Amino acid sequence: MGEKARTEEVEYFYYEYGYFDALCKSLIDVIQEKLKG
User: Fold this and answer.
1) Mind listing the pLDDT tens digit for each residue in 1-37?
2) What is this structure's pTM?
3) pLDDT at res. 31
4) Largest Cα–Cα distance in the chain?
5) If you ran DSSP here, which 8-state letter would residue 17 be given?
6) Domain tally for the chain?
7) Helix spans in the chain (H)
8) What domain of life does the native source organism fall in (predicted)?
9) How far is CA 22 from CA 1, 12, 33, in A?
């Protein structure tokens, strides 16, 4: 185990849940817009 195993786990998660990654990016964009005011 260790960092490498953790990284592979995360990559697998994003491969399985690609829509979640897109959702996060959208959420970040919205937050940045709010911060800009």
Assistant:
1) 567 777 888 777 767 777 777 888 999 999 999 999 8
2) 0.45
3) 95
4) 44
5) T
6) 1
7) 3-16, 18-36
8) Bacteria
9) 28, 15, 17
**Cβ–Cβ contacts within 10 Å for residue 11, how many?**
10
Q: How far apart, in whole angstroms, are the C-alpha atoms of residue 10 and residue 12?
A: 5
Q: Which residues lie closer than 8 Å to 1 by C-beta, 6 or more apart? A: none
- pLDDT in the model for residue 35: 95
Given a contact cutoff of 8 angstroms between Cβ atoms, the answer to whether 20 and 14 are in contact is yes
Q: Which residue has the tokens 């897109």?
A: 22
Please tell me whether residue 37 adopts helix, strand or coil conformation: coil
In which residue are the tokens 């005011």 written?
A: 37
